[in-house]
Design brief:
Layout (H helix, E strand, L loop, with lengths): L5 H8 L3 H9 L7 E2 L5 E2 L2 H15 L4 H11 L7 H33 L10 H7 L10
Antiparallel strand pairs: 1-2
Helix pairs in contact: 1-3
């Protein structure tokens, strides 16, 4: 079984060294074996786990959701419903954020389309930013 240093584990997994230590501290990654000189050593399984965590974080999953997904991963014959539910909640969060961003986009477009004037005293951008009631959307 191959073992590598934390630096090499970081390079291979794409996870920074301090982040690897943090994942160990919070229990997402098991404490690694140590050499006689007390240096951490990581296995290919650790690298796969780190890559799983990194990819999950890139997709915006929260630490608790990742912890649950890791636990599910340890039971390959179990139903996938719990993992599906976690992914569905994340999708709903993303969709809600997209709706808010679209509202923001529309508000900014409307603000700019309302007329561009040459002076700040009659600038629609300043006017709308100063009075939220002039916005079309309540939340953006």
């Amino acid at each position: 079984m191959r073992t590598i240093s934390i630096g090499k584990a970081a390079r291979e997994s794409g996870v920074k060294v301090p982040t690897i230590r943090y994942y160990e501290q919070i229990g997402l990654l098991a404490a690694p074996e140590r050499t006689e000189s007390n240096r951490r050593t990581y296995t290919d399984d650790d690298i796969r786990r780190l890559a799983f965590i990194r990819h999950s974080r890139e997709l915006g999953f929260e630490i608790d959701a990742i912890r649950t997904l890791i636990e599910l991963q340890e039971h390959p014959a179990a139903p996938c419903a719990a993992a599906d539910a976690i992914a569905r909640r994340r999708l709903e969060d993303v969709q809600a954020r997209i709706r808010k961003l679209r509202a923001l986009e529309q508000e900014l477009e409307r603000m700019l389309a309302s007329g561009v004037h040459g002076r700040v005293h009659n600038c629609r951008v300043i006017e709308v930013l100063a009075d939220h009631y002039k916005c079309v959307h309540e939340v953006h």
